[in-house]
Design a protein that fits this description.
about 60 residues; mainly alpha
Length: about 60
């Protein structure tokens, strides 16, 4: 199991989400923290823009 901590920027961005987006995010975070595999729609994908180098080894 992984330890989850929230940064100030995460807290700020989280407030902007709709209730359904918050529920989806909670489910994904719980799965990741428990070391479970994600559904295909949440799988790794290429990032663009400022996040281009944020994929950790990909």
């Amino acid at each position: 199991m992984y330890e989850i901590f929230r940064t100030k920027s995460f807290k700020r961005d989280y407030k902007k989400l709709s209730e359904s987006e918050k529920e989806t995010l909670k489910k994904v975070i719980i799965k990741l923290s428990d070391g479970e595999k994600l559904e295909e729609k949440h799988k790794d994908h290429k990032l663009i823009g400022n996040y281009n180098d944020c994929r950790g080894g990909a």
